[in-house]
Amino acid sequence: MSLTVGSGRRAAIACLLGLFLVSTLGAASATAAPAGSWHRNNYGVEHERLTCREAIPSLSCSYDKVPEAGFSWDDRTAHFTGRNITGSWSCPTWFDSTVCDNVVAVYRGKSTFTGGGQHPITATQEYILTEVDGQEILQVYWVDSFYCPWCRTFDEALAADYACTFAP
Question: Of 9, 26, 70, 129, which residue is least crowded by CB atoms under 10 Å?
Answer without folding.
Answer: 70
